[in-house]
Amino acid sequence: SLVVLFGATAGAYGAKLGSDERELILLVWQVVDLHSKKVGTLHKSLVKADNLDLSDQCREVSGLTPEGLGKAEPLDRVLQQFSQLVSSDLKVLGRSSYTLCSDGQLLIRQVLHPETSKKNFLLSDCFYSFYDLRKEFHTCYPSSAAMKDQTIKTMAEYLGLGTDETEEDFGVWQVKTMVAIIFSMLSESCNHIFTEPETVKYKYETGPCFFFSFFFLCSSKSETVDSETVIRARGLPWQSSDQDIARFFKGLNIAKGGVALCLNAQGRRNGEALVRFVNSEQRDLALERHKHHMGSRYIEVYKATGEEFLKIAGGTSNEVAQFLSKENQVIIRMRGLPFTATQEDVLGFLGPECPVTGGKEGLLFVKYPDGRPTGDAFVLFSCEEYAQNALKKHKEILGKRYIELFRSTAAEVQQVVLNRYMSTPLIPTLPTPIIPVIPPPYTIATGSIRDCVRLRGLPYTAGIDDILEFMGDATADIKPHGVHMVLNQQGRPSGDAFIQMKSADKAFLVAQKCHKKMMKDRYVEVFQCSGEEMNFVLMGGTLNRSGLSPPPCKLPCLSPPAYAAFQTAAVIPAEAALYQPQALLPTTRTPQASAAAPPTVTYYPAQAAQLYMNYTAYYPSPPVSPTTVGYIAAPPGAVAAAATATHTPILPQPGALVRMQGLPYNTGMKEILSFFQGYQYAPDDYNGLIQLSDQARSVLQAPKEWVCL
């Protein structure tokens, strides 16, 4: 038997059903006995939604009103009645089992499953298997229109059935017509058989996406993942687990191990995830959930590529593969472990109330390439109860440190381990071809003249071309290289940009003309500001109605010489800045060695020049940050040629820049300053290169002071 099912929400109708997160307000159904070709009673139930504000399209198409819906039963009660009435009708027809049949997949996948998941009640088993009438119809009648173009009306017209919708109530005509279509498919001329229903997965299957026996670098790059099955979800709460993401996409079938949480360079989640679905049809439905909500936050959903997914979720090693070989385990990540912590210490910390699967075999410590511990570990638990008991120990003390515990995923295990082992990131920031660049200089505006504008609220997908189109005729008044996109700490657009105009009058006119003008689907705020304010924000401060708020550093935030773009009268090349390859880990130099050492010229990838010419990374990652650019020192011949061909100053090798590793997570500015008490910052190397303000010079030259970079 089939139960023909039709429904409607308080919002969009037809192909956009469920795309606006509106609640179900109508269910209509009828039982069909495929053998005797008899039907049961046709039932129609209104559903009381939490929000009774109906869209104009809903009012027009359905004829329903908030007053009528206010008297209806809530969804959980309606579904109980549905099960009872279907069972009663089946008994009358002499049948015991049934499968749902709906017009397309939207009602089941995009409405019922997401809504019941948000309202925290379970759907009965019958909603996890159904027939898509459009697919069955196209199989029976291959010469009919494509499935995506099919509707109940077009299918009825193809068969020559009556299509006057005004004869019946909304929903009743649709179900009666669907029943008539099914009977036509069962006729002797077609003799269609319903054999392969659509299925909805009961739960997300965790586990590694791929297993490989070769150690750590023999990853899934040799495998292929269909790009038509992958999406990128952005804006996730930082504590989201793979199960939370699977719940957000409830009703859609995610591939096994198909949720890969993205991490930043420090191994922390950055609010993004790549999700792989079982086919392109499921992926397309997932894209319709763009800006749906997870709790109080809306989640952006975009297309992604199989290559991106593999780079995040595909790598593994023998150690990781063995750790993840135990399937259907709950993974917990521990962070902040003492470096001396042993397996026995961790097992003792967790205690007997949350036993680890396999004892010591259920622990995986993350280490650096040289074998030093990172303070991270992953733990396997056999059930949800044990995992919950472990999570209750969040921020309890082990040794002298508090330990953080989070839910984790197999993809995160692979990503963290590989990120620690490999010296380069899984997804390189810049392309590999290299060319020397010694371009002519240009200056970044400074001073109190209000000849700049700030754009706030830009779409995250907006680029330079979008900004220029947004400004219209005013683009002619922008200074060369005067557009600066502000990126967040993950290197993605923050929604802010600064533009240098040719004069304060031009900036004022742009602010008046473009303020709250629409760009794509968002309005953009435009404010006039000064070059000083612009540089202040680019250094990490904030600019709002209350005025300027200083950058995070309490001392004057002076960038190291490599970031001369932030200094008052600094000059930087048009396409790249010059800095030293040894900036992160400088070697100790003697006075004799420094006098003889030739200047270093840096080679940059061709596309990177354009990237860092126009884009300014947000504090604490200034433009052309050596932490994100894979730079290569030029040959000695190129150095000599560059030095004679331009008067652009080349920075000397630093002697006082150090990198600190292994800091406790709660370390503050005072602790760092205290650690370096008695040491003095040497300003002599940079006085001739960068023009410093009096305040900056006084800080640099003050005895026994340390300037935080």
TrEMBL record:
<feature type="domain" description="RRM">
    <location>
        <begin position="330"/>
        <end position="410"/>
    </location>
</feature>
<dbReference type="InterPro" id="IPR035979">
    <property type="entry name" value="RBD_domain_sf"/>
</dbReference>
<keyword id="KW-0677">Repeat</keyword>
<comment type="similarity">
    <text>Belongs to the ESRP family.</text>
</comment>
<feature type="domain" description="RRM">
    <location>
        <begin position="229"/>
        <end position="306"/>
    </location>
</feature>
<dbReference type="InterPro" id="IPR012677">
    <property type="entry name" value="Nucleotide-bd_a/b_plait_sf"/>
</dbReference>
<keyword id="KW-0694">RNA-binding</keyword>
<dbReference type="GO" id="GO:0005634">
    <property type="term" value="C:nucleus"/>
</dbReference>
<dbReference type="GO" id="GO:0003723">
    <property type="term" value="F:RNA binding"/>
</dbReference>
<keyword id="KW-0539">Nucleus</keyword>
<protein>
    <recommendedName>
        <fullName>Epithelial splicing regulatory protein 2</fullName>
    </recommendedName>
</protein>
<dbReference type="GO" id="GO:0008380">
    <property type="term" value="P:RNA splicing"/>
</dbReference>
<dbReference type="InterPro" id="IPR012337">
    <property type="entry name" value="RNaseH-like_sf"/>
</dbReference>
<dbReference type="InterPro" id="IPR050666">
    <property type="entry name" value="ESRP"/>
</dbReference>
<dbReference type="InterPro" id="IPR036397">
    <property type="entry name" value="RNaseH_sf"/>
</dbReference>
<dbReference type="InterPro" id="IPR000504">
    <property type="entry name" value="RRM_dom"/>
</dbReference>
<keyword id="KW-0507">mRNA processing</keyword>
<keyword id="KW-0508">mRNA splicing</keyword>
<dbReference type="GO" id="GO:0006397">
    <property type="term" value="P:mRNA processing"/>
</dbReference>
